[in-house]
Amino acid sequence: MALASLSPAARTQVIVPGIITVLVAILIFGFVSLVVGWIPFSMGDVAWRFGVAGQFLGSSQQFAFVLMLLIFVALYGGQYRAMRWASLFTILTGVIACVTVFPFALDFLTERHLQRQDLVDSYTRRMIALGGLSFLLGLAMIWGGRLGFLASATEGKDAPRPTGQGLIVGQEEV
């Protein structure tokens, strides 16, 4: 059966799960490639911690975009469980982004002294912008994930209908 021969509602039921699968695969591959770049783990090294935090904060924009797109696609297709999971991961990623900014700032102060003197000002501006925008993005992700979670809670609930007599069609009794 060709996809073009399906009704629009049936087409949505076929296409939306496929789009959700592709978006989840993009998230998984992005996360795996990010974590592979962190190996070998060296928590005692300031440069490693600063690099890992910078990579995560720099890539959080792409994660936010894909997660929000996943929430919108799931909402459009009526896939409330996928929407709820995407909302939870969006909130989790936002919290991690907000929390990561603080150790990033402390490691930035240490790494700043290792830069050449002529590059310190531009380096400082770029890192402050990355930390500040990442913190705001984290807050926006928490807010958007919360709204997505609340929207996914409407699964199976219909709008309340008033009770009472309905429209009666027919002859009047005399």
In words, what does this structure look like?
The chain has helices at residues 8-36, 46-77, 80-112, 120-152. The chain is mainly α and 174 residues long. It has one domain (3-152). The mean pLDDT is 84.
Features:
174 residues, mainly alpha
Tell me, what's the shape? elongated
What's the alpha carbon Rg, rounded to whole Å?
24 Å
Topology as H/E string?
Answer: HHHH
Strand content: under 5%
> Mean of the pLDDT scores?
84
Tell how many strands the DSSP assignment holds.
0
- Work out the count of structural domains: 1
Q: Would you tell me the structural class of the helices and strands?
A: mainly alpha
Stretches with pLDDT under 50, minimum 5 residues: none
Number of helices: 4
* Helical proportion, percent range: over 70%
CA-to-CA gap between the ends?
58 Å
Please describe the biggest sheet, giving its number of strands, its sense, and whether it closes into a barrel. none
Quaternary state reads single chain
Helix and strand layout, with pairings?
Blueprint: H1 8-36, H2 46-77, H3 80-112, H4 120-152
Describe this structure in a few short sentences:
With 174 residues, this protein is mainly α. The chain has helices at 8-36, 46-77, 80-112, 120-152. The chain is built from 4 helices and no strands.
